[in-house]
Amino acid sequence: MLRPLVAGNWKMHLTVEEGLQLLQVYRARLEPLAARVDIVVLPPAVTLWPAAAVLRGSPIQLGAQNTGWEDEGPFTGEISPGMLAGWCPYVLIGHSERRQLFHEPDQWINLKLRAAVRHGLKPILAVGETLEEHDAGQTDRVVTGQVTAALDGSHRDWAESLSVAYEPVWAIGTGRAATPEYANGVMARIRRLLREEFASAAAGIRVLYGGSVTAENAADLMAQPEIDGALVGGASLKPDAFTAIVAAAAATASPV
Ligand code: PGA
Question: Which of 19, 49, 113, 194 has the maximal Cβ count within 10 Å?
Answer without folding.
Answer: 113
